[in-house]
Amino acid sequence: MWSPTRPNWPMLTLGALIVLALFTFPIWRPILLPEDVFDPFPAVSGEEHAILLTMEPTQAAAIYRAGTPVPVPDEFSAMPEMVNPRRVLVGFFDAIDAVRWARGMATIYEDDTGYRLLRLEGFEARNGPDLHVLLSMHPAPRTPDEVMTGMGAIDLGRLVGSVGNQNYEVPRDIDLSQYHSIVIYSAPLEMVFSSAELSPSAQEE
Fold it and tell me: Which pTM does this prediction carry?
């Protein structure tokens, strides 16, 4: 004669728990198996972080590595002696975005001997790889082609520091009326970090 067997409740309960665990795996998996989220720019946040993520990876990585501010050494920050210096051209740096920017004033002086000097004052910039200071014929260049408008840009030298006043000699034999901006430019990245459009100075010293 057939007689019903009692359900094996422990086994049924275990089976139900296994099924439940499988269906809820995505929910509880991070608790037991946390995933490391890779952030290529861990020390940067906000808008700058978002812009770096949109850039070509090699460029973004180079900008990120060079991001530490570099103060101008004291010996390069003082205004040098000039014979009756006059302000010839003046401009103010602007920001392209949260990654590429500079602030401060650019002034070109000329004295009675014909000596010319570019002085950056109140200057601060986002540091970058191998930044140079250029004279460009374009008033507000943003691309390498714009930087090289006309007869090309004049390289006044490598940026001394990303924070602080600094000086650069300007060639005596160039026609300053043909040059309309000072550009902070990364040569290896072929990237403009900022520019200051130059205008004739209303004040002569």
Answer: 0.80
